[in-house]
Design brief:
The complex is a heterodimer of chains A (about 110) and B (about 120).
Chain A: E1 3-5, E2 10-14, E3 19-21, E4 24-26, E5 33-39, E6 46-52, E7 59-61, E8 64-69, E9 74-79, E10 88-95, E11 102-104, E12 108-113
Parallel strand pairs in A: 2-12
Antiparallel strand pairs in A: 1-4, 3-9, 5-6, 5-10, 7-8, 8-9, 10-11, 10-12
Chain B: E1 3-7, E2 10-13, E3 19-26, E4 32-38, E5 44-51, E6 57-58, E7 67-73, E8 76-81, E9 90-97, E10 105-107, E11 111-115
Parallel strand pairs in B: 2-11
Antiparallel strand pairs in B: 1-3, 3-8, 4-5, 4-9, 5-6, 7-8, 9-10, 9-11
Classes of the chains: A mainly beta (about 110), B mainly beta (about 120).
């Protein structure tokens, strides 16, 4: 069975602080994809990153970085020098290659305080 | 570019009425679309997979007669909430595989349904 766990339900940080959002997943598939999405108050999901299970290289995109570790089944997301605009709910998700179905975590609500 | 649109973005209806939500793929065709439901402050839960020209596949626990899905064309899937009740109030999101065909998934902006 597929499962994505985001243990942090709510996080508050002061602007310019760094923050890491945790994501742990479960799957028996050897091939799979991992995603992070941002959901601002408007509700629309904003794609942030996709990672396939064979690519464990960490990635950095501006203030965003991702740490993928298969050994611990984790795919953590770090925002450096957080900004108020980063306030949103962030979802980690897993997708099996055999289907287009996504398994979403419960989300982490991030509030950046000015 | 390829996007997924939903209409309406927000709907308020009285209990007992039926509501139709449209999901359209713009600038691409989608033989498969997905419908998700999101309760306030909760995650997205897959409700059903909409297949063009055939019956939808519903996830366990989702009432087929309550949530009618029709995928009549390669660019349109509709979700009809029949005899809506307050507990059906939720945020409904559709998605479709992107043009890349692989892991890309395009999500619609969502429809917020409020049943009074």
């Amino acid at each position: 069975a597929q499962k994505v766990t985001q243990a942090q339900t709510e996080i508050s940080v002061v602007e310019k602080e760094d923050v890491t959002l945790d994501c742990v997943y479960e799957t028996r598939d050897t091939t799979y994809y991992l995603f992070w999405y941002k959901q601002p108050p408007s509700g629309e999901l904003v794609f942030l990153i996709r990672r396939n299970s064979f690519d464990e290289q960490n990635e950095i995109s501006g203030r965003y970085s991702w740490n993928f570790q298969k050994s611990t089944s984790s795919f953590n997301f770090t925002i450096t020098a957080s900004q108020v605009v980063d306030s949103a709910v962030y979802f980690c998700a897993l997708r099996r290659p055999s289907r287009n179905q996504f398994y979403f975590g419960t989300g982490t609500s991030l509030t950046v305080i000015p | 570019g390829a996007v997924v649109s939903q209409h309406p973005s927000r709907v308020i209806c009285k209990s007992g009425t039926s509501v139709k939500i449209e999901c359209r793929s713009l600038d691409f065709q989608a033989t498969t679309m997905f419908w998700y439901r999101q309760f306030p402050k909760q995650s997205l839960m897959l409700m059903a997979t909409s297949n063009e020209g055939s019956k939808a596949t519903y996830e366990q626990g989702v009432e087929k007669d309550k949530f009618l899905i029709n995928h009549a064309s390669l660019t349109l899937s509709t979700l009809t909430v029949t005899s809506a009740h307050p507990e059906d109030s939720s945020f409904y999101i559709c998605s479709a595989p992107g043009l890349a065909g692989g892991s890309e998934q395009l999500f619609g902006p969502g429809t917020r349904l409020t049943v009074l």
